[in-house]
Amino acid sequence: MYILHVSFGVAGVAAMAVLHSRMRRKITGALLWVMGCLLASVFLTLVQYYFVSVMSDVPGYMYVQYSLSLIIALALYGGLLVLMLHLPKVPNLLAVIVTLFVVGIQVGRMLLVLLAAPEIAQRIRFPAVALISAYLFFLGMVFYRSAAEEPDETLSLLLKRLSILTLIFAPASTLFYLISYQFPALGRLHISLDFIYFSVWSILTIAVFLRYLSRPTALLEEGKISSAFISAYKITKREAEVVELISHGLSNQEIADRLFVSFTTARSHIYNIFQKTGAKSRVELLRIVTGYRQ
What we know:
With about 290 residues, the protein is mainly alpha-helical. The chain has helices spanning about 1-25, 25-55, 60-85, 90-115, 120-125, 125-150, 155-180, 185, 195-215, 225-235, 235-245, 250-260, 265-275, 280-290.
């Protein structure tokens, strides 16, 4: 199962890396960092499984394991904080406070596991799991709100799917802990919902990436939109420039930056193009453009 999770993770990280190389957005960079940290956590657990099964008597092994886990956790939460700071309409101060709070919980929990009596560590485990689940639920709500505001269709879809996954996983992780506490035999199976969550995240990323690759590219005449398309829909010169930039996969903000206009102006041009052509999405618009190649 660990090898399967690693395989899904590698494929998901690769898909996210290609998306980032094409979009060059801070959001995609943060998502890539977070996925890389999750993959590192799965790989560390795979190595841990090997040591426990084959080389359980290695001196100081537990301290090395928890130290590496803490480093990965800090890197992960740092990536999530950067991600939230670059998502639209996320209060920066709230994101910082919530992230620092959950980091404090993780650090305190690991120190108790290493230094305190086992009974104390076991006693604080459920409150820690519940608080971390609450943080994940907050993160899911952030993804959901940001998906509606994100101008890029691919990123919006990915954030929406991740929001649904996270909002389901957050309460499910707490519920699973309660069930495994009542049935110790289930806990001995070493089933980790965290890794299942990451595998599903990777599958969603791969699906969005494949959808991104399947988007039709506008067939241009010498780098320009077909004159037949411009004439048929009474497209202005500026609107033709916007369609060309859309055909290269640029977001609304990137189009505004390229044309040296405001985000609102760029969005207005795109709205007018959709009204003239009757297109409901960028994909449909590019299909219309492709059909007018002469």
